[in-house]
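quick q for whoever's on today - can somebody do inverse folding on this one?? i tried earlier but teh output was garbage lol. tokens:
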């Protein structure tokens, strides 16, 4: 038996694939390479190039590889861009998830781990985000992830009394950073780490947007979690589902404490050896002072913990990016 990783050629998905493989589970990858890279798929891992919107392709893949569960990572993950491209975001994230669930039902596959997002919470006015906090997504991206969770919930309800009830869980997280493999790095043009790395490699000065927030150093505080820890949690969730063990509908993969943007910049200078003083720009609209999630439930059930310091997050990401140059 195997597990299908949708989006398994992307930054996060490729780490999940390696974690699945290391756990002794056979991974299968489907990815349309819109933001992923075929070179990120390990040698020997079956790779299907195609979109999750192709129901027939999904069904054929699930059946051919005798898939027992899906780790659904594929999606359009750019919150800011989603405001300008809502229809594309909903097509990829809502319709895509619906088609995945439909294909699973047709192929008799009953387990799914959904890579959701802490964007479902929007900009909550609390110091620590817990799973039961009201959901007020602030972008089409956040809305699409919340709807994805609803689709899982509703399909589980619909199949509860049938021969193949759906078992599911959703993993919510904020900023994924670092690298767990020197051949994998974040290629997103919208995430903080790759933005800073590209600036430094180009001899330019990175910028902080606002230094007058109500935080200890004036810059906003966020959850930053290492991609290898994220991948490991997905695997444990898959194992719990496959074993029929109790599992929550959703988990926050949070750092509990968070890091400020200035702390990230200081670590960037310290680890890379490039001495720079970041520029200070105006605040970006809608940026709250602090958003940090608890990871208590995930620690209890998914062996979730932060195994990397901020310097290690920067070092692993920087080494992987430099190796790709």
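ok took a stab at it. sequence:
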């Amino acid at each position: 038996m195997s597990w299908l990783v949708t989006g398994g050629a992307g930054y996060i998905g490729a780490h999940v694939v390696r974690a699945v493989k290391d756990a002794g589970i056979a991974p299968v990858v489907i990815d349309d390479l819109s933001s992923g890279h075929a070179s990120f798929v390990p040698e020997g891992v079956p790779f299907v190039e195609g979109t999750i919107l192709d129901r027939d392709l999904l069904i054929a893949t699930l059946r051919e590889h005798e898939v027992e569960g899906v780790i659904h990572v594929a999606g359009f993950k750019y919150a800011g861009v989603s405001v300008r491209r809502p229809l594309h975001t909903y097509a990829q994230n809502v319709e895509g998830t619906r088609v995945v669930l439909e294909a699973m039902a047709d192929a008799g596959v009953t387990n799914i781990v959904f890579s959701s997002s802490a964007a479902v919470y929007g900009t909550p006015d609390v110091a620590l985000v817990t799973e039961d906090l009201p959901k007020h997504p602030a972008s089409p991206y956040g809305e699409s992830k919340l709807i994805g969770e609803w689709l899982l919930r509703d399909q589980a309800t619909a199949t509860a009394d049938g021969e193949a009830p759906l078992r599911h869980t959703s993993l919510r997280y904020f900023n994924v950073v670092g690298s767990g493999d020197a051949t994998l790095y974040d290629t997103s043009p919208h995430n903080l780490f790759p933005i800073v790395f590209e600036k430094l490699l180009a001899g330019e000065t990175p910028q902080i947007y606002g230094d007058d927030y109500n935080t200890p150093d004036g810059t906003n505080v966020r959850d930053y979690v290492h991609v290898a820890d994220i991948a490991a949690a997905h695997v444990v969730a898959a194992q719990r589902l496959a074993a029929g063990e109790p599992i929550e509908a959703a988990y926050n993969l949070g750092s509990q404490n968070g890091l400020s943007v200035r702390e990230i910049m200081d670590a960037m200078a310290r680890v890379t050896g490039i001495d720079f003083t970041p520029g200070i720009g105006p605040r970006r609209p809608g940026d709250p002072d602090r958003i940090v999630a608890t990871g208590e439930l995930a620690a209890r059930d998914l062996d979730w913990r932060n195994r990397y310091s901020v310097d290690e997050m920067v070092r692993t990401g920087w080494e992987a990016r430099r190796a790709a140059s």
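fwiw The chain has a mean pLDDT of 95. also The two ends are 38 Å apart (CA to CA). so keep that in mind when u check it
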